[in-house]
Write a structure and sequence with these properties.
63% strand, 24 strands, mainly beta, AttH-like fold, 2 domains, 13-stranded antiparallel beta sheet
């Protein structure tokens, strides 16, 4: 599959890169634009017992690595973050299918990609007063379709995102004396890969989930606000590795004064998506520094309702575990 450059030699968006594909084809050769480049690899893995997430990101003026665990039985939660000024030692690859790592005193993270498998290895000595280690293998077969989108605000402000759902996962996470096992039959990973040049003030919604429904592996990924007015969306449904891309915007309805109340997600022009999201945990991540002011309300919960595929098949969604978030940032 031929790669397409995201930018020209001066760091401006190439028009030919704009659009979407079922497989990652973009080479994110983002250059220039001092302090405005944003690059991240965010992973989240879920099963019936645990939600585990780990991220390596470089925001140009700082690198931020964070990981968190939510025990889905007890709702015990812990999160740790490491910030490195000017992103020293955090080089982000231009391709989606590539390796990246961070080695610090407080935590070590490795995302190693080889032949369709991403191996995640992490170690954090003081994760809420306990040692956390994990080794996971995440499988993405060559015929598994994903949602890959270039969003153009203008020639100097743009973003490539690869949203990958329903990636079967095996491995183990240890948190103190607590052991979480991940089996490919019931454990699924999501990747949010992002590379671009952002405006200083940004807002977005994002919702995602992967899991078994009526004997089939189904994933959903929906975005909002940040793509408004671009003519491009990041909305899709994945059923047994096949993507249905939604070209219309999503309507998000929720109460920013009480994020724990149910959320409603619907397609704006058709009836292809009608979902209620019922949170059972609120993750709040706030960062305030000299030039960063970021606040995320990431709600963990369950989706109920239905989605309609490109083949006009209506799929009932009943208690699919995932998340929905409201993010406001000056960064």
């Amino acid at each position: 599959m031929n790669q397409v450059d995201l930018c020209d030699a001066n760091g401006k968006l190439l028009h030919d890169s704009v659009g979407w594909s079922r497989y990652p084809m973009i080479r994110c050769n983002v250059t220039g634009h001092p302090l405005r480049k944003k690059k991240w690899n965010y992973w989240c893995v879920t099963n019936a017992k645990c939600l585990f997430s780990v991220t390596i990101s470089n925001l140009d003026y700082a690198a931020a690595m964070f990981m968190y665990v939510l025990d889905l039985d007890t709702l015990e939660f812990e999160e740790q973050t490491v910030v490195v000024p000017f992103g020293r030692g955090c080089d982000m690859p231009d391709e989606v299918n590539a390796s990246v790592q961070f080695a610090g005193k407080q935590m070590q993270i490795v995302f190693h990609y080889e032949s369709g498998i991403t191996t995640i290895r992490v170690r954090c000595e003081n994760f809420g007063g306990k040692l956390l280690t994990a080794e996971l293998e995440i499988h993405c077969p060559s015929d598994h379709e994903t949602l890959n989108v270039v969003v153009p605000w203008n020639a100097n402000r743009f973003q490539f995102t690869s949203k990958q759902n329903c990636l079967r996962t095996n491995g183990k996470l240890m948190w103190g004396d607590r052991e979480y096992l991940f089996d490919p039959s019931d454990s699924f990973a999501c990747l949010d890969y992002g590379r671009g040049v952002w405006k200083y003030k940004s807002t977005w919604n994002w919702g995602s989930a992967s899991g078994m429904q009526q004997g089939r592996l189904i994933g959903i990924t929906f975005g909002g606000r940040w793509t408004d007015g671009t003519g491009v969306t990041e909305n899709g449904i994945v059923v047994e590795g096949k993507l249905s891309k939604l070209g219309e915007d999503m309507v998000w309805k929720y109460n920013p004064s009480d994020y724990m109340k149910p959320w409603l997600l619907e397609t704006s022009k058709t009836d292809r998506v009608s979902l209620k999201f019922v949170p059972f945990y609120e993750r709040i991540a706030k960062t305030k520094a000299v030039i960063i002011d970021s606040e995320v309300h990431q709600m963990i919960g369950r989706y109920y309702g239905y989605v309609v595929t490109d083949e006009d098949e209506k799929l009932e969604i009943d208690g699919l575990v995932g998340w929905a978030e409201d993010h406001r940032a000056r960064w």
